[in-house]
């Protein structure tokens, strides 16, 4: 049995060499063919040809038109079959009905890769899906890359080529850092690219993948890593179609020091439906996907703004360090709102050292409050170097992972002075340094803006957006730091020959084997055996019917609680048997009644695409009422599990609460780690459900009071 993504994805996934080389030929062609070319610049065919000319493409261009002999002095051929052998890139600007014959002809002519703009394939229904699968098969068999269908093509700014129906203009990269943009949606690809260039960030590649029949996001990530021109990847994706390949590509990007920032719709039911209708994606479980990709240090964001902003920071500072935020402002109001918003979004403000406080105090007039966030007051208007000096002091503090400077900008000369003070510190720092000038869209001094862009120091107009972006950078830093902090899979365990639901008694035997504490008890087939077991373990006891068919025992009266002596046990046994009405059972589990504690739930499942994950949450109605659950990677370490459990909604219940003692979070984390390790032991376990897990006071452990295990074939 496969051990799932967490185990199997340790090895880099190798796609066929011919397909990988086909993508390289498509994105960096020496020869191009355009089917549906036109002399009319207002048409798609005319735009594609004009793009080639604007980018100064000096390779061979083959124009395919059944009705024209030439376009702009370039001769036309009648069909794809008339192409010379081995053209690198073919653009099919033709109706859907002509796509398959053209792709088949391209395969015969040894074309490296094909771009298909036409829609109406998988996103249009089952018939279109089948047609798309035929296209994909033809291309894969020929080792030919296919971008699309239902896509907008690409602009390779780094390579000097644009095969898209969107008018594109060269943007030389020079020595600047750059971003690669990959999106299933053409509109999103253009929007992200425009947002980056609008901030003065160079874009190495803009690729719209559409339905991803052959070329997928993972292929492009691998290509971007191989090329080494981009410092970060901005990705909009509506379905990750090959999880193993995607996680492998994400790992390669991480190892190359290239952050991958992803916006993926599908958190809501309507979002899933929209993704389905847009690209024909069979959307999987969003939460499972998110856990798996974040475990490989992919930065997941929830909005377009957050995507733009996180990339703006991470492309410039791709190796952020763990820690908390330093804030320097010239406004008491901004200082106060920074406290509030940081708490709202769970972004910790750093507690700086006394040495840092003393260093900051030495920079400011006596009597000012010295803290983080730091308000320099009016000092900065007369002495702008305070912003650089205080930034340097904050950055030197080990607790600080980056510095945000939300400020009123002042007049043009004051803005320029601020930039002159801050930019050298930003250039010298590995920790992010970000400036946020308030005032929304009010104009800023052009020289100040140019200096910020030339130095690639991130400039925001919203402190709140900047803080959300710092939150994304912090998640990335923490993910990088925890890459090696993983628990191994369990070994030495045996599974079951038969698939299906296991009884609670069998499930608890397994939990005991993996080191999870369960109540003392035993399986009885007669009332006398039950009395003997109870006498051995001590009253009061609970009795529970055991049969695979009765996984929800309480629904049929299959659980009798708090039986305090032998007489009560015999009476309870009689009631239990009456409730069963003669149904066949394996026996009755007799267990000690648990001491009171806090009920939690620990569960795990194995997803066919994303592998194993573990869930932990508050028990009873709280898990739904408070959304008090966390989905965790199955290889999570004990320390990371403790941190995530303490971050649950309603986690106050885990501490001292209304006279009740703090709960044993360490024991809960231990259960999470052991269950996750068992899920990856190759035993074909599909589900483990411990509900409830009774958590005692700190140091007293946790006990699995009920257990359900399901295995596959």
What does the radius of gyration come to?
A: 31 Å
Number of helical segments with 4 or more residues:
24
For the termini, the CA-CA separation is 10 Å
Return the structural class. Answer: alpha/beta
Characterize the biggest β-sheet: 7 strands, mixed
**Which stretches of 5+ consecutive residues score pLDDT under 50?**
1-18, 274-284
Number of strands: 30
Strand content: 15-25%
Shape type? flat
Strand order of the largest sheet: 3-4-2-1-5-6-7
**Helix content percent band:** 25-40%
Arithmetic mean pLDDT: 92
How would you concisely characterize the structure shown here?
With 713 residues, the chain is of the alpha/beta class.
Secondary-structure map with pairings?
Layout: H1 5-8, H2 17-27, E1 31-35, H3 44-54, E2 60-64, E3 70-71, E4 74-77, E5 89-92, H4 99-108, E6 113-116, H5 126-142, E7 145-147, E8 153-156, E9 161-164, E10 178-183, H6 186-198, E11 202-208, H7 217-227, E12 232-236, H8 243-255, E13 260-263, H9 269-279, H10 286-294, E14 299-301, H11 304-314, E15 324-329, H12 332-345, H13 354-361, E16 374-375, H14 379-382, H15 385-396, E17 400-407, H16 412-428, E18 433-437, H17 446-455, E19 459-460, H18 463-481, E20 500-502, H19 504-514, E21 521-524, H20 527-537, E22 541-546, E23 559-563, H21 566-580, E24 587-592, E25 598-607, E26 611-618, H22 622-625, E27 629-633, H23 638-646, H24 665-679, E28 685-695, E29 702-704, E30 707-711
Parallel strand pairs: 1-2, 1-5, 2-4, 5-6, 6-7, 10-11, 10-12, 12-13, 13-14, 15-16, 15-17, 17-18, 18-19
Antiparallel strand pairs: 3-4, 8-9, 8-11, 20-30, 21-24, 22-23, 22-24, 25-26, 25-28, 26-27, 28-29, 28-30
